[in-house]
Fold each of these.
Amino acid sequence: MSFCLDDGSELLYGPAKSEPGAVATGFLGDEPQTAILHETAPPSEAATRAQIHTTERTAVLPSGVADVPKGKGFDKRLLLAPLALAVMLLGGFFGYRYLGSNSKNVTSIAVMPFVNESGNPDLEYLSDGMTETLIKSLTSLPNMEVRPRSAVFRYKGRDTDLQTVGKELSVQAILNGRLVERGERLMLSLELVDVEKNKVLWTEQYERKQADVVSLQSDIARDISATLSPKLSGADEAKVTKQATSDPVAYQAYLRGRYYWNKRTGEDIQKAVEQFRLAVDRDPNYALAFVGLADCYVLLPDYASSPAAESFATAKEFAERALSIDSSLAEPHATLGLIYHHNWEWADAEREYKRGVELNPNYASLYHWYSVLLFDEGRNDEASEMITRAHELDPLSNIINQNYAQMLQKRNDHEEAINICRKMIDLDPQFPGGHFTIAWSYMKLRSYDEAIASFQKALEVGGSNSDTLSDLGFAYAAVGRRDDAIKLLKELEERYQAKKAEAQAIAAIYGALGKKDKAFEWLEKAYMDRSGTLPDFFRMTYKSEPLRDDPRFKELMRRVGLPT
């Protein structure tokens, strides 16, 4: 017996046996059962396996039912069998679809990094990139909290119990995936687990040619969103399954670009630029690839010592190009906000951050960057709300936790700030921000030996960073180790001449040494350089504390455009 969908696809052929993941039909034992078959291959490909899945399409009875032969011994009840079967099929489907969804109460999910089981390390960019793309797609689901990349990639390569991960990330559901390469084809196995109930909600396997990876990504997003949000509107489904490009070469170049960008070294960011340029050359309307270029250029001053003014101008051009292609993206607004912030264009920066939050209220980095702007402007209560929200969305992000601890320091809650920093250091001992942030709390609590040891550790794990050298020099001066402070001061002055340090880093040490005139001389240099991080100096009350009672300090803040 064969039942078909309205597009001609086979719905049932013969007596289907129960398979893992099949929709329950009420049959027992070895009695015939019905199942809706889902083919993961695109229409142009032959079927590779029968997969159990649900669909919103309507089953139709085959033609010729009325022509069933009525020979000798024919039982008239058989006339009703096809109709009864169809009713049971539809009833079981709609009962499952609208009444029996296991995931109807899931409101938070973490997509864990897909495991590359292909044995080919060159495919790591693909497993990572598909994870990131799916995270971005699922953030379009209404009333669904999706943990960002920075939260989940911490678990990459770690064999961690799912219940533990669920508690640490404060999510109800976790999606795991495994990627295998077989010649020109990809096999992807997915499993969605309710970690609160310790129950598998959904599993699926997909097999596609590598050239079909774009459509595969859309199909995965559609299937998972249908499981998480069974009554998803057509408009919301379109957002979830939206393809940023139809060109598979451009898409894979974009994934490689993000793979390199996330490594956060000057060399890797330059590699990312090459890949993003390849993507936009292949598809000039690939908005996310232009976002990638903007994100690269906004980081090059920090990681590759590129001239800030030139890099920011290029980043702005690419961000605006992305928005001209797709005005619904939140990412370009975030990048523009950061650029305007560094350029001291406060109103424009806030406008971009607000617009980004409107477009994607689950984008943790937006709340984080917006909080820094608000702190710089002295709007501490609003800033606290923003960084708290960022922390809720991405509780394990290093940089968000660092700024969350700095918010506690502004409140003089140094014990809790130290607790946050210790958790950061336990999770990632190689993150310098955990060490130099905890050091400032030690300074305020007069635990000077611990403070200096923490500054030194930050230098050890983060390289000879100019800002951390300034922090350590300030600490040396504050505890009376003037010779050590002056030695670091001279090193920073040499770096400044080589355009590898900013002027306010030098001003901080002069201030701690009690040489106010020299400190303001260097702050004036920072102003003339239009240093994007000069407002950080005003915000970091510890380093600016020796200078705050001088009228020149408030005058400089006014010139920068900040309230005094």
Amino acid sequence: MKTVLLPEGNALKADALQLAIHNSANFSSIATDAQGVIQIFNVGAERMLGYSAAEVVNQITPAGISDAQEIIARAAALSLEAGMDIRPGFEALVFKASRGIEDIYELTYIRKDGSRFPAIVSVSPLRDAHEKIIGYLLMGTDNTARKQVEAEQYLLDQRLREQQLALQETNVALEAARAAAEKANRAKSDFLSSMSHELRTPLNAVLGFAQLLASDKPPPTTSQQRSLDQILKGGWYLLQLINEILDLAMIESGKVTMSQESMGLTEVFKDCQAMIGPLADKRGIHLVFPKLSRRFFVHADRTRVKQVMINLLSNAVKYNRRGGMVAVECGEGREGMVRISVTDNGAGLSPDQVDKLFQPFNRLGQEDGAEEGTGIGLVVTKQLTELMGGSIGVRSNEGTGTTFWIELVASDEPTLEPMALDELLLPETQDTESQATLLYIEDNPANLALVEQLILRRSDLKLLTAIDGHMGIQLAQAYQPDVILMDINLPGISGYGCLKILQDNPATAHIPVLALSANAMPRDIEKGMEAGFLRYLTKPINVVEFMSALDMALEFSVVHTGNAS
């Protein structure tokens, strides 16, 4: 084998270096002279490329070594760039002059048998003592394992990108579907609400004229009365259906407003007993309400609690057996909750019926029964209960009866914020004839009692009360109070509706109206002031603020009407 040209120096070191290069099995070492004639072809090159050294030494990279030929051709091309000659017939592969002669390349080696494998090859020029290039050294290693890892990583990255893209597309589709569903729900709710309101106008005429005909003089004949009874029965049922659909639409569209405050259940039970009693008596149903050893208070909307209880009680009466019983119980529920139960001893429900109880418009096979119904009431009941932070459940056994229960958040009895009342209230020395009149419109008995206690301590005021908006408007028109104090969430007509009626009537437009409500968010207060309330007070009552607002309202009344003294 021809020895490679090396710079002059220690012969032992040169021999040791040549021996190490020649015997390295893990790296292919190919050295050429400046013209590309192979001078060294080591053991590693033989193992990797399948050629013996005898086949290639003193040859210009024969055509079969391929990438070895390419490497040497690149080195020869670089030599050309350096001004050196290349042997005739050698096909040089010229590459960018911007790259230096010494470099590392990722190439494909072609073995003698034609098989290929990736390699990493370092090309280094060999120089003499005068820095003249006298040859090239090509050190190569098999890059198959790395390439396999890179290929696997690429495939993994590709799959990950595809999965991420698919996930993004799925998320986009889900978001679009959610938005479409919300839009459809809003459109449905808006449609139901609009239709419910539109149906009330003709229904008002139907029910109104039917009642007029029924009360005519002379009275209608028996046959006519039967027809009128059917018209009225169908009309009132249709009105119930419209009201329940409207409730459901408002709940689903998020338009239901809650005025939650501490309220006693005793007053609710009394009201419910008065309302359901006639229906129970008509059907021979015995109503049993609890005799409570202590008063229970819950944090809820009084109007909505009454609506929930009336629905549960009316169902218990309607679907009971003739001469049956409906029992109401009240006690502690889960921690921090109060449980109210309504139990009947009617036919009961099967497990399948219990599972379908809260599906809209599902009457559980009662469509052809004697009792009219919409299949909406329990759905509304459940959603209203949950909106108040409560829960609802049912237990039933076929043949023995059913118990519906609701749990509401327990609350303490409403109290005034602790204040030094004696410093705030006027001494009882004024002439009663000079007292100004305060009209308080409120449906919550506990709140009425609290305000009554406060006004009793003010000798300059006398109090009128009304438990709903209609009665409050009538009292305002009849008694011309100096100041009106009004709850917002009133039954029948809201506080805003009452205020509008009072403002539109010249006889009451001058009366200052104060709002007193449990709706205490900043937007609630802003909305109240925009509507025209003189002040918007929030519950629980702050005595200092309350008295100050009354004084301001009385001064306003004096300035604008001269009535208060």
Amino acid sequence: MASHSDDLGHREYIARSHERCRNYGIELDRVYSTRILRGPELTERLESKRDLIVATEPFVNQLYGFVKGSGFFAILTDEEGCILKVIGDEDILSRAFDIKMIPGAYMDERSIGTNAMGTALTENMPVQVSGTEHFIESYHRWTCSGAPIRDADGKVIGALDLTGNCANVHSHTLGMVVAAVDAIEKILRIERYNEELSLSKQYTETIIDSLSAGILTTDLDGTIKTVSKQAAEMFGYEIPEMRRMKAWQLFEGWEKIKEAFRAKHPFQEEDVAVNAQRNKIRYSLSAYPIFDPQGETKDVILVFKELRRVRKLANKIMGRQAIYTFEKIIGRDKSFLRAVEFAKKTADSRSTVLILGESGTGKELFAQAMHNQSDRKEEAFIAINCGALPRTLIESELFGYDEGAFTGAKRSGQPGKFEIADGGTLFLDEIGEMPLDLQTRLLRVIEEGTVCRIGGTHDIPVSVRLIAATNKDLHEEVESGNFRKDLYYRLNVLPLVLPPLRERKSDLPVLIDYFMDRVSRRLNKKPIRLPLPYLRTLMDYEWPGNVRELENLVELIINAEALVAFPTRKGKETQRTIIEMTSYRGGEIVREAEILSLEEMERRHIGRVLSINKGNMSVAARILGIGRTTLYRKIEALDIDCSDMGQCSESEQHLAATAVPF
């Protein structure tokens, strides 16, 4: 057989990889990875790699944010090449999923041949693989850029990759991946450094650095030696009274601290139940040993912090925030403005909100705006998509888990989204996708205001404003037995219905203007004024993808510097409206197939403006920026037929005012 890399003639790592693939006996017509984890195996793998997934999540999302809408998707794998996460544009993801590039699929060279992830892990360096550089033919459509991820010890723990259509190959793509991996590795090193720094803190440094926290010192028998004023206020006791108590009388977990010290393990930022004077609450506890000259533990410093304060800081560091306000939500349609006003009025309510609307209508935008309008705006805004997480992950994500709850669980356990959102807002998108048994747990949290972690025995009080959203008809889901009736009525206290774009077409002109300005600024390109016939075609379109589809279309026009053909819908029959491709030159759109004289362009443009305004001379003159007398003179001079004209709608007048000659 001829060498598969004979015609490549460049990068040596490609030739080495192809040689390995031939030795593995990989077929050129192989389509899928030969190893794909599913079911419990995949769940166990995702749980065991949870730390890697969580640590890289903001960087993977940011990396995808740079290329969103350009036909790329980002992939995170573990050190063996098993895909842990995939995020990208819907159209290219569907093609990737067709050939099983899904979570659980192994992308190592032995399983799928030469590719950026597997080859980067094997070569232990960043690589780019495009087109026929892939060994198997089904991957010739892709361009892939991947780099290995190393922990603080330099050990490879995974790989990050950007994959897109082969036509979009660019060396800068690999640079973006390498930059993201560098940021991830720096964060991992910082986390290691902070852990080591915390373990080495001395007695006096701990006191000074933790003045805002409650501080106790005890001996190994649990006898309390000192109590800070803040600690006494947090526990609700007088200082002399606390000094007569033992440590284990104040909180649960004293024996765990002693066990951690004996095993030379840190005990930091652990959630513990505290027996305060009035009730049982939870604090974040860190314990630090004080050593005698012989290196033996003599005393213990206990530092208690409010969980809300700790998690608020974590939210700032991890970038969890709501960025949209009602001022940033665009629309003038009466039904849309009624929805905005209802959302504003109920923003401060403690009642649950259920946002109903089709995909792309802006449900999360409204949730963020309501949070920023409320008295919780300084607290956390946490969003979770109930339809995007595996069944086994969504429970631990929402409710958290205690130590030993399942295989791969963190030793210290982990708070769920309800705890993290305590004091703030929790947005549950696609609530209709939540499994029935979890619906029961969610109902209990809403009714009782407490959450119990998986494997836990204590109820944790939480104060969370819950906003749920769905594009499903939950009433029909209740009737079909897919959704609990009692939960439906608990969620549907404040129903907020967002109209689809096809029902608020009067907003199209202002939305087009807004997206044209925003996208052109982001892409550093000039905005394009669309011709009137094209704008009228947009008004006739049904917009099944709603505002999101409109924004994507505007971005495509600006990138292509050309008008784009798209389907229009009339009644039950879908037709293809073909818009002749145009080019954008020097600030205006020019028809390629027909060059018109200025006189003919003026005649056609005035005729169209008059036609749209049904012969209303005053409105037409105002739109054209000329006097009525001048308009009458031009009509006569250009021989424009004004017969058979009536009145027009306000939105059509806006379109005429923003149109350019075509």
Amino acid sequence: MNMKTNELVKRLLKYVKPYRALLFIAVISSFISVAASLLTPVLIGDAIDFIVGKDNVNFSEVIRYIGYLGITIALATIFQWLLSWSTNKLSFSTVKDMREDLFNHIDKLPLKYIDSHSHGDLITRMGNDIEQISTGLLQGFSQLLNGVFTIVGTLVVMFIVNWILALVVFLITPLSLFVAAFIAKHTHDMFIKQATVQGKLSGLGEEMISNAKVVQAFSYGDDAQKDYEKLNQELYGYGYKAQFYSAMSNPCTRFVNGLVYAAVGITGALLAINTGSITAGRLSTFLMFSNQYTKPFNEITGVITELQTAMASARRVFAVLDEPTESDDSSLSEINECDGTVKLENVSFGYTEDKILLQHINLAVENGQKIAIVGPTGCGKTTLINLLMRYYDVSGGRILVSSHPVTDVKRDSLRKCFGMVLQETWLTGGTIKENIAYGKRDATDEEIIAAAKAANAHGFITKMSDGYDTVISEGGDNLSQGQKQLLCIARIMLTHPPMLILDEATSSIDTRTEIKIQKAFNTMMEGRTSFIVAHRLSTIKEADLILVMNDGNIIEHGTHEELLAKKGFYFNLYNSQFAPV
């Protein structure tokens, strides 16, 4: 998405709008602070004019101006602090809202988007890019406000004091603006490329760390290091150029400022000597004004780096926020009572329009039936489950759950009908108790323990240091794969859903434990519709109906005995388990 800068600014201002009271405080504080700062050189210049020479000093007037000067400096300090406070609060409040919007938006994005984008890059957008926007806003509000008021204020006062010297300053000013604009133009593209490569680098790092065992098992470490070094070198190149261009802004504008100061000094001295139209005190005031006038240009160009980075980061954040979410279902009805029936009518699906995976699937499931889904890898078993849960929408046909088309009911309502245990386990950082109660926050300790016992997890839990209060790391890395799976099974058993989906749920558990878990599953599946995806066909012999899939089609269906008797695809698939390698 190539969003224009003015569009970005408008969208950022929408986040600022709820805190416009803070913006008002910042503007008033900046105005008073700058006004007090502008008054300071005038007071100093007037005081200097009372110091005519040796033994010719009007001390009473000088002391009076020193008093005025103290009050002015105090006012400038107080309102400068108030400016900093308001801009800090404004900036952090704004990005807090933006961060929450981004997180909530990602939570509503279709699974297709999450699956097709680097998780590390998304994390970078939520973390690093948001922080870059915060820094840009923080520096931008305070320094731009002060800068604009200082430039306008000093220019007005200078024309009042001496229009000839003011004209000298005004005529040299465009040179400073030209330098700043030239540098900003060259840094912008570099910062966009830098942010993009930084996201790729984070994605690669997340991938390598989360799959460290696989990387090491296949000795891919050296290749991964090369990939990382390549991206790191790209990041170095873009970062170096971006920082080089932005670093040039300050010395270049300081050089222009030096020209302004020299021009004012020389012109003022000639006026004082030849015409006497300006006093030494006023010339001193004017020299201080010329410094004050040019200083904002230094500050503004000094924050070009942060502003350019912030705009590049804002583009990346808004690119995610502009991704279409799952369709709004707030106006749809809920499945108040799930009767356990499922019907697929001529269902077709493809991850892309030109590649259809499932074709014309028809199926009618009654309450309490155990439906097993088998077939070779890539035949569409898990895809069919994702359609039942409406993680993806069908390309053709329709799916009905409890006689409701799934597109006509709220997703949360639909998904509450199913309890899902996957092959890939997922645990959150927290206690074992919290992980089991993930789907039922108000569960009692007795219910949690009962679910753990039913899942055969109670034994190993009680042997841990703090029992159910044992803290596990994010992802459960301090547990074995089998233990993690048992906790996931206990989590489902606690919720007692009307229907079950078991996607290779016991694949990571040893044979002895699997037998116990199968008994627990059989108890839990009594009276409940169950969909069982399995590679080990011995685990689904008792299923009421076995669906045999291949190339996105149901090619056979029936009971275990019926399918064996047909001596077809299932027969060969089943016997291949016992064939010598």
